[in-house]
Amino acid sequence: MKLFIAILICSLPHLGNTQNNEISFNYGIGIAINKLRIVDPTFENNTFENQYSHMKAKSQYDHGATILYKRSIFKKLKLFATAGVELSSSKHYQELIDPYERHLENIRLTSNRIAFHLGLNKQFEFYDSKVILDLGCHIVDRYALNKTKSYATGFHYNNEDWIEYKYDLTTYHGKYYENDGVVESKAYMYLNLDFSATLMLELSTNMYLNLGVSYSRNNVFFYDYSYEINYYYNGSTIPSETQTFEGLQGDFDPKFGMRDHYLYFETGLSYKFGR
Predict the structure, then answer these.
(1) In the beta sheet, which residues pair with residue 138?
(2) pLDDT digit string (tens) for 66-94?
(3) Theoretical Cys-Cys bridge with 169: which of 64, 192, 225, 247, CB 3.0 to 4.6 Å?
(4) Do 214 and 264 meet the contact criterion of CB atoms below 8 Å apart?
(5) What predicted TM-score, i.e. pTM, was given to this entire model?
């Protein structure tokens, strides 16, 4: 992270001498496109992930803001060296389903992170620079703001007054764990590539409206959870039955893995200096 901060600072010369350089601010909402597939339960594809997909957390969306500074390095080629910072938050939920397939609750998970961007942007100008197509490829280094986050409740009821339950769920960030096969490599935890395509529309002198998409791979975290459910049959005041789930078990303290590839839809503003 220190290396990215140093490069970012060095790339920000005094703005008065930044002819054709650019600063942009974008906000985007992303969906996990790798989670849009239909789970295939056939024998050939009967992996652990497919068998137990109903036990896994699901992605809702990701959103965040990015500020980028682009420094012109080849004026004729419209090529820029780019550095920036991103603040983002992912939203997931874990369905709590009992052994009889009753859906008791959704445990809502939030993960906040900061990321540092370093890469190249190439621009194509049209209609006397009133319309610009900006293509980017960035190395991204991500850091979760919390290494662990806990979600737990005591016994409580939901819609059924004869079923009470409690759960304990913890998410883990920034460290690799043995898992259920979703995150195969430690390499996914570190540097990754993001790709972007942005249409820039001139609003006024030097100011542009940004409309774009970007693709962010390998957003990773791990988690584990347990629950205990009591059933009270026929008006009983003591539990008639108890069901428990203790999470993943193994010699290496395995976790459930989450690995999302997000497609973002973005909008924002760019300002070009000294045009």
Answers:
(1) 119, 194
(2) 999 999 999 999 999 999 999 999 999 99
(3) 225
(4) yes
(5) 0.86
